[in-house]
Design a protein that fits this description.
By secondary structure, the chain is mainly alpha-helical. It has eight helices and three strands; from the N terminus they run αααβαββαααα. It has a three-stranded mixed β-sheet, with helices on both faces. Helix 5 crosses helix 7 and helix 6 packs antiparallel against helix 7.
């Protein structure tokens, strides 16, 4: 009990010290507290996102060891589903290492190809069949009239890396300013603008990701019913994999929103800090 109280006191002291650090730079106490609160939420949500993606990986690999009762492979069911919906021109291929690392299992609008990772390509597991049909759903949406699906595809690369780039870019700009000019200035503001643009694109891509993936999940389960490729129990297992992915995407979206709030607070703090420095001079 004494240990817990001691740790709580240390935490309060640390927070108080951080608030004083910001207020000494001309930043209001309210803004400093808001920044620390949002920063804390970002860290907490980041941990939750990590847990959700670990959960996705667990379901993915566990069900990839379970063969589907009909023995059909991911390539077979995807090819049949594509032919059934009039998309004979779309190919199904094994993904190369670089593509798999960047995009995972995906549909390429430009190459008109569904790419599946090596571990599930042409495999007859629950994971392989479920993911293959989900990507058929994505392909149908992209080739149909769902503009969000195509927009999501072209923003996907920045959407993947944008949220992880904006903080380093801001920090680099701040460090350069402090070294060269001894204060926050032009370079840090420019880096802030660039990081803001990257974050905005990443936000749009993450926002579009949820409805596209949700619709593709529903279409995959419908295709399972149409093809009778597995039992009802196996379908439930596949639905669990797809749902885990969707929950992880939603968590990513929440984290992106919090990062945007942090970004806005960072701008306000820079403005207040610069005003405080000017008035002191």
């Amino acid at each position: 009990m004494i240990s817990i109280l001691s740790e709580a006191e240390e935490s309060r002291n640390l927070i108080s010290a951080l608030i004083h650090f910001f207020t000494d730079q001309g930043i209001s106490k309210g803004l400093a507290i808001a920044y620390l609160v949002v920063l804390g939420l970002v860290l907490v949500m980041g941990i939750i996102c990590l847990i959700m993606w670990i959960r996705v990986c667990g379901k993915y690999y566990k069900n990839n060891k379970v063969a589907i009762s009909t023995g059909r492979s991911s390539f077979d069911v995807a090819r049949e589903a594509l032919n059934r919906c009039g998309l004979q021109n779309i190919e199904v291929k094994r993904s190369g290492f670089i593509r798999a690392w960047i995009f995972g299992n995906s549909y390429s609008v430009l190459r008109k190809t569904i790419f599946l990772r090596r571990r599930i390509a042409d495999k007859n597991s629950l994971t392989a069949v479920g993911i293959a049909l989900q990507k058929v759903g994505v392909a149908k949406l992209c080739e149909g009239d769902m503009k969000a699906a195509k927009a999501r595809y072209f923003l996907q690369l920045i959407g993947l890396f944008g949220p992880f780039l904006f903080l380093p870019i801001m920090l680099i700009g701040a460090v350069v300013d402090l070294i060269l000019f001894q204060h926050y200035g032009t370079i840090s503001i420019a880096s802030l603008a660039v990081s803001g643009a990257i974050l905005a694109v990443g936000f749009v891509a993450t926002l579009l990701n949820i409805p596209v993936e949700k619709k593709a999940n529903e279409m995959a389960l419908e295709m399972i019913d149409e093809s009778k490729v597995c039992t009802e129990e196996e379908k439930e297992q596949i639905a669990g994999i797809l749902k885990a992915y969707l929950v992880a995407y939603i968590c990513d979206f929440i984290l992106t929103v919090l990062r945007i709030l942090l970004f806005i607070l960072e701008i306000l703090m820079k403005v207040q800090g610069n005003r405080g420095g000017s008035s002191n001079n």
